[in-house]
Records
---
Amino acid sequence: MKLTKGALVAVVDGEKLALFENVGAQDVDLKAKATPDIPERVSGAPGRYSGGANPDDDTQAEDGFAMGVADALNHMVLTHKAEALLVIAAPKTLGQLRKGWHKETEARLVGEIAKDLTGHTTDQIATAIQNA
């Protein structure tokens, strides 16, 4: 996948967010950015509760974190801090993020990669982007 210079890359799972900026013109070259505080939310999507299909509070906490990340990324897009956005997230987290996107955030998405790459090195993340 080609990634424009200046694109924001968000690497997310149910507990962590890492942000990078692509500083490369030809190849993907990621530079770590400061990560905003994500406020804790009691649960993710409205109407979710612990039960047979959602057995524990950990799932609700992960869903809530994903919605908090969506809010933070929406804010970055709406305040013109991200002109292009690539999201790399665990598949379940990616599904939750999609529920929270603002229409402007959706318009600025240049791609999504459904993989859990949190905890990977910057080089491994750049390689995954180039191979996508």
---
Amino acid sequence: MMYVVMNELHVEKDQHEMVKGRFEKSKDRMKDVEGCVEFLFLESEKEDVSFVVFTKWDSKESYENWLNSDAFRSAHKGQQSSDKKPTTNNNLRSFEVVFHT
């Protein structure tokens, strides 16, 4: 069953461009992740959420395999290198797809 994960990122305004740059580097790598059907990086029009990372997977198992992979660790390793953490908060939500056209 298809699986969707949305991660709402709350980012300080002065960090927006840096965060966009990080995810721009990720977009091509996600094409090679087994089971990843779609990767979207969305910029919100609302003030309370800065960005949403939307991923669609062929199964929950594929998503979990990616979470436990070297590719995931590599994609997230640079986040601790800066003195100021760009994300002030996030809200991770996941869904099993019931209907799809």
---
Amino acid sequence: MLSSPVIRTSAVILAVIFLQACAAIKQIVDVQKPTANVTGVSLQNVDLEQATLLVDVEVANPNGFALKAAAFDLDLDIAESSVARVSQQDAELNIAANDKAVVQLPLSLKFEDIASALGSLDDYQAVPYAVLGSVTMNLPVLGSISLPVEHKDTLPVPRMPAISFVDASLKSVDWSGAEFALVLDVNNPNAFDLNLKSLSYALSSDGKALGGGDMKEVAISQGETRRLEIPLDVSLTNLGISLFRMLSGTDDVTLGLDATADLVPELGIWKPEPLSYKAERRLSR
């Protein structure tokens, strides 16, 4: 037969185990529903064909015990049509007790799919979109639950700037040569600013190079058409027969312009290739 001290010790141990079990059961039963939100969307990369968005999904755990997010399902909707989707069914995001955790999910979409959803992108510098989806959580007692997430914003649609050869005129002529003025328009059709870091140009007539040069950086605001006036001095020996005839008579002459523009948008993740441009203009005395 057990002695009283042994019985008392066993009773204390059993009481402690029972209280701990009760606390654990109460903790499990008293489960609070976690929350999920899209806390940010950033552009990872973008070009003229597609864009990749990084979607930050934050899951908050208000409970006194750790939880796991089991799956993430997100759709990117344009005009109520899904144009991109990401599904991670094996994602195991651990969220500590009374804490938050963030997972970053990539969404890649093609602009041709956006155009199909909208009918056309011709009139859009940016398009509204919605990130819709859910986070699946595994909770004790409650089992698997789905937490809805939603985020709305706009996505810039990048377009290549355009260069136009507007005019060429003869400013002056003397024994040393001639001074021409070239007028170019550079149009920025985007919803963001860009810098024309450099513009290299060369002028020719009848296949003969007349000269050229480089322009320094020019800032062009979103939606702006910037007019550039470029002076060009041509020596008498480089004028060529056609220009010489024009200067000495009334014949018109055709001038050819070759230009290369190095463009840097204020959208840091997009760096287009240098823009090449060729054009001709008739020049008269």
---
Amino acid sequence: MRAKVKGWEIIDGEEESLADPERGGGWVRFMVGIDEGPGDESFDVLVCTPRWLKERISQDGPVLGRHILVTCPLELREAVAFLTRRFEEELADDWASLGERLSQLGSWEFENY
């Protein structure tokens, strides 16, 4: 089976933070299921610029690099298109295996469930 992005949204409160192409950053939620079936589950990705990341590190200390897309400038539509392609490249024999593969890209709502 192949993954299919069925929708995406900016997580509440992140709209303003993602608007700045040079200093932006925030979480984007992708709803992903299988290409020929109903249902989906969420996978969250932090989309940010190097400057945003540097500022966070200065404030909060080191950041682990999982589920992060760093881009400059931050063009949200381009970042979403890139991530959609990456999600939809993933194949597996069953949903559990596919979810594990997808969780390498985004934080899966059922990871370690």
